[in-house]
Fold:
Amino acid sequence: MGSIAADVHEIPVIDFSNKELKPGSHMWSYTCDQIRYALEEYGCFVAKYDELLSNNNEDDTQIFCQSKELFDLPTETKMKNISEEPFCGYLGKNPQVPLYEGLAIDRATSLEEVRKFVDLMWINGNRRFCDIVHSYAKQIALLDEMATKMVFESYGVEKHWKPVEAVRSHVLRFLKYDEPDQDSDTTLRFVPHTDKNFTTILHQTQVGGLQVQAKDGTWISVHPKPSHFLLMAGDMMKVWSNDRIRACCHQVSLSGHEERYSMGMFTFTDGEIKVPEEFVDDEHPILYKPFDNLKYIRFYVTDEAKKTKDPIKAFCGV
Structure:
């Protein structure tokens, strides 16, 4: 892995709050080009998204207050958050990532699904948690939808958007990293990895630690700011683009003795999609067969996948 050199690179910051950002406008076309460049070069970009604040009429730190309240619940309560799908339920106390803990709401843009989660965690319910989390999930999903649609437009493959849009689903994940023991010098809280879904949007508190890896191996720190969200391409967006887009390799590296909270919106495709024909030519032969994101997730945790150096190629490579 490369050394940390945050001053060598700068992740593009793209303003989604610009009043002139409307379909068909010059600003829209310019922003599409910005997004495409960022995803091809870094596999990610920082989205400035003030809409979340104006719609909630309160500071975005409210979501982290709710997150802290959630993680303060007894472990036996949090363990009720189970799922048949990998990575979609409660995760914690894993020897490989001992300081990490996470809970998830599948299909979090649905008020009914958020209520089910709340009723599971609190016997008497928690109306404030439900309202804030559902509103937050809807706003982040709208950001993801706009940005992903603009990716399709930037490549001139808009006609393929509707079939992909129809099979998209979202998992909202609450993330916590405990402070290490006083006598520990642990700095790496989560190992370098790429996400296995289509796109991910990460939102940090004032305690940072998130880093992404540049093409030359250096690590770039993503400094938290109000209304800033990191949108990352996952393995499946890389596959969909026939390797034009990079899957963002990232890690959490944090020294000191503070707890760290963050939020992650993970977008999946539930049905089979394929590489658009526009991405295939003599210079760019097709690299992947049609794929199903959820089937890939299930494959990824098998012994077969663990034995291969490149699970994506093993799963759907040509």
Remarks:
- The chain has one domain: 13-271.
- The radius of gyration is 19 Å.
